[in-house]
From TrEMBL:
Pathway, per record: Cofactor biosynthesis; NAD(+) biosynthesis; quinolinate from iminoaspartate: step 1/1
Alphabetically ordered keywords of this record: 4Fe-4S, Iron, Iron-sulfur, Metal-binding, Pyridine nucleotide biosynthesis, Transferase
Lineage top rank: taxon: Bacteria
UniProt xrefs under InterPro entries: NadA, NadA_sf
Protein name: Quinolinate synthase
GO molecular function: transferase activity
Enzyme Commission code(s) on record: 2.5.1.72
The encoding gene: nadA
Native organism taxonomy: Bacteria, Bacillati, Actinomycetota, Actinomycetes, Mycobacteriales
Length: 354
């Protein structure tokens, strides 16, 4: 555990802050600060001083969601970043999300409260892996889920979200091979719907979503036969959910395969009293706020993303005090990545990313 030495860093009007002096660095992230009223006031004061807007992903801890100017999925937040009048974006999410914001808003300063907040799914394919895969399939179209690094996006023809992946794959000429990466569960979902036989799927996965398995889902649905199921297509249980519907264990109309934004929209209109939710548990906070009368329960309570949870109250305070960590994308990579991201935005709806 390291107590940060503030005087060695560039600061904004905060050296006197007793709060900032309490920040400690640990292997699992920055700690030492509680999200109380003093913290909230300091965050607002510093954000104003930096002319910064704070964006928070749906999987962030409640205190971060509550202090943010915008809460949403990665695509909606990238759009909010581009539209924001402020010249600094504080992106409370994981690194690839902040990179996507930088690709769309190169003239803005993009900060992430802890640059160690990575993503196991984005890490499951590197640019070198993709270049090698492309060489084995010359002429194939590359479709990458938004959870990829800027370097992978730069080698991609079409970025996609979970809600437009099917549409994008269907728009590619039927005789052209498709390389789909990095998520194998989303890829399987798209292949099942499109019946495409010349689609190759990278065997990547998110450790959190893959951990929500079919056995848990089966047990929960048998215990709660009336409940609806909201399932993110990246989940290891997406196939199980469709199987359960197919065999009649859960009526088909009770199973909804939805992006995080889709879940929020559905929460507001569902007639169900209880909903089982198969995605990262941070989503429950948003769903319960959106529809307080519905009983939302996690399929797996332990499905928590340690990277998302690295954006702690202390990390956000440090970010605004020090102007760190800054996220940059080199101009060549950015230019190459921009076209694939713009294609995704042209087809995707806000609320349809992870
Ligand atoms: S929940 Fe999974 S896909 Fe999402 S940021 Fe965490 S590791 Fe990545």
């Amino acid at each position: 555990m390291t107590v940060l030495n503030r005087t060695s860093l560039t600061t904004v009007d905060a050296l006197a802050s007793s709060l900032a002096d309490r920040i400690v660095d640990t292997p699992t992230g920055y700690g030492g600060v509680e999200p109380d009223q003093q913290w909230a006031q300091e965050i607002r004061r510093l954000a104003k001083a930096r002319n910064a807007t704070i964006l928070a992903h749906n999987y962030q801890v409640p205190a971060i969601q509550d202090i943010a100017d915008h809460v949403g999925d990665s695509l909606a937040l990238a759009r909010a970043a581009a539209a924001a009048p402020e010249d600094t974006i504080v992106f409370c999410g994981v690194h690839f999300m902040a990179e996507t914001a930088k690709i769309l808003s190169p003239d803005k300063t993009v900060l992430i409260p802890d640059e160690r907040a990575g993503c196991s799914l984005a890490d499951s394919i590197t640019a070198a892996d993709l270049a090698e895969w492309k060489a084995e399939h010359p002429g194939a179209a590359v479709v990458s889920y938004v959870n990829t690094t800027a370097a992978v996006k730069a080698l991609t023809d079409y970025c996609c979200t979970s809600s437009n992946a099917v549409e994008i794959v269907e728009s590619i000429a039927p005789d052209r091979e498709v390389l789909f990466c990095p998520d194998q569960f989303l890829g399987a979902h798209v292949r099942r719907i499109t019946n495409r036989t010349n689609m190759h799927i990278w065997a990547g996965e998110c450790h959190v979503h893959a951990g929500i398995n079919g056995d848990e889902l089966t047990a929960q649905t048998r215990d709660n036969p009336e409940a609806e199921l909201f399932v993110h297509p990246e989940c290891g249980c997406a196939t199980s959910a469709l199987y359960l519907a197919g065999e009649g264990t859960v009526p088909e109309e009770q199973v909804k395969i939805l992006s995080t934004g889709g879940m929020l929209a559905e929460a507001k209109s569902t007639g169900a009293k209880k909903v089982l939710v198969a995605t990262e548990v941070g989503m429950l906070y948003q769903l319960r706020n959106a529809a307080p009368d519905v009983d939302f329960q996690a399929v797996n309570e332990k499905a928590s993303c340690k990277f998302m949870k690295m954006i702690t109250p202390a990390a956000l305070l440090r970010c605004l005090v020090d102007g760190a960590d800054e996220v940059d994308v080199d101009p060549t990579t950015r230019e190459a990545a921009l076209a694939s991201v713009q294609r995704m935005i042209a087809v995707g709806q806000p609320g349809s990313g992870e």
